[in-house]
């Protein structure tokens, strides 16, 4: 059984939930970090999926947050398809290596939040 997990804010409180019938079934326990949710919350999420009478909230009434929490180590793979490689000046054929790079935790945003570029960073 697949689970659609969300982390969200409602009235200054942060919750985890499971998408169920186009709404969010709210988990009763609080998990301050993704690691803690993965260790303890998955079992609660599975139970909530099959239970009736859960506390349900609408997507319209919450702010979706990133499921990733700080501290986090963000590792990315870039230029991994030919069109992007060509657009960025790389040879469009697959290179003999993967381009791996890290991002800071300040790059984490919610599902519909803006990504803010630091003023000190310039695009050439």
Structure description:
The chain has 124 residues and is α+β, with helices and mostly antiparallel strands. The protein contains two helices and seven strands, in the order E-E-E-H-E-E-E-H-E. Strands 4-3-2-1-5 form a five-stranded antiparallel β-sheet, with helices on one face. A two-stranded antiparallel ribbon has the order 6-7.
Break the fold down into its secondary structure elements and pairings.
Elements: E1 5-10, E2 13-20, E3 23-26, H1 34-50, E4 56-57, E5 63-65, E6 74-78, H2 82-87, E7 99-103
Antiparallel strand pairs: 1-2, 1-5, 2-3, 3-4, 6-7
Could you describe the largest sheet, including whether it forms a barrel? 5 strands, antiparallel
Order of helices and strands: EEEHEEEHE
What is the mean pLDDT? Answer: 84
Q: What is the count of structural domains?
A: 2
Structural class, from helix and strand content?
alpha+beta
Strand proportion, as a percent range, falls in 25-35%
**Low-confidence regions:** none
Strand order of the largest sheet: 4-3-2-1-5
Q: Tell me how many strands there are.
A: 7
Termini separation comes to 46 Å
The DSSP helix count reads 2
Shape: elongated
Helix content: 10-25%
Radius of gyration over C-alpha positions, nearest whole angstrom? 19 Å
Key words describing this protein structure:
124 residues; alpha+beta; 2 domains; 5-stranded antiparallel sheet; 7 strands; 19% helix
Short description:
With about 120 residues, this protein is of the alpha+beta class. Helices cover about 20% and strands about 25% of the residues.
């Amino acid at each position: 059984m697949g689970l659609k997990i969300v982390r969200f804010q409602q009235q200054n409180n942060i919750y985890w939930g499971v998408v169920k019938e186009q709404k969010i079934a709210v988990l009763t326990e609080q998990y301050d970090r993704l690691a803690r949710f993965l260790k303890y919350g998955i079992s609660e999420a599975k139970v909530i999926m099959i239970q009736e009478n859960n506390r349900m909230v609408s997507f319209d009434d919450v702010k979706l947050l990133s499921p990733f929490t700080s501290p986090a180590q963000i590792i990315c793979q870039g230029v991994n398809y030919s069109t992007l490689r060509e657009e960025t000046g790389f040879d469009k054929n697959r290179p003999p290596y993967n381009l791996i790079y890290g991002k800071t935790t300040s790059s984490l945003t919610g599902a519909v939040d803006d990504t803010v570029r630091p003023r000190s960073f310039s695009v050439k």
